[in-house]
Fold:
Amino acid sequence: MSRPGTLFGLGVGPGDPELLTIKAARILGQVDAVFAASSSKNDYSIAEAIVAPHLPAATQVTRLSFPMTRDEAVLAGAWAGNAAAMAEVLAAGRDAAFITLGDPLLYSTFGYVLPLLRALVPDLPIEIVPGITSFQAAAARTGQVLVESGENLLIASGVDEDGRLRQALETADNAVILKAYRSFPRLRSLLGELGLASATTFVTRLGHEGEAVISDLADVPSKPHYLSLCLIKRTKT
Structure:
């Protein structure tokens, strides 16, 4: 049996094609195939659009549909089907890259398909290339220091339940809330109750058309874009 190809998990950053690492760009120019996650609601991949300037014309790009749902059975079926499609390419000895927004190991679909691929192709060579995260780019865009000296930084999900998120925010020096698009009015209310509204900067569509940095949470629409986050800094520098 031939040796399987290598799977590269590539973080492609938050949106600006120039924020890819040199290593990620090099790998994209060498692999036989690229897999890009997309929503089942449309035939478009943000990650694919980001890497397009770095891809040779002949590179095969396959969009993998991942439904935006909390139904575990539906999700499990999608992950299994996508992993099987990737395994077929890799088992044939072809190198492939799975591209993901930000970093491959931070709230990424790559983290879900990785154990499935390891089970389907036990001897699969895997290399993970970290990427610039959206909150790092947002901090650079706003000039906000994330942490300094003995401060800590909380990285939380806006889809977490209120009780857990409240408890985490109460003990954090500074925080990043990713996935801030889900039920934003609830999140806005929670930040207000904790006295953190004035310490919060809302950033949406960073590196994409329609990018916005909003310092007053009252100005954020009730249903912001999927690519939205909050930077929270209790201590001003």
In short: The mean pLDDT is 91. The radius of gyration is 19 Å.
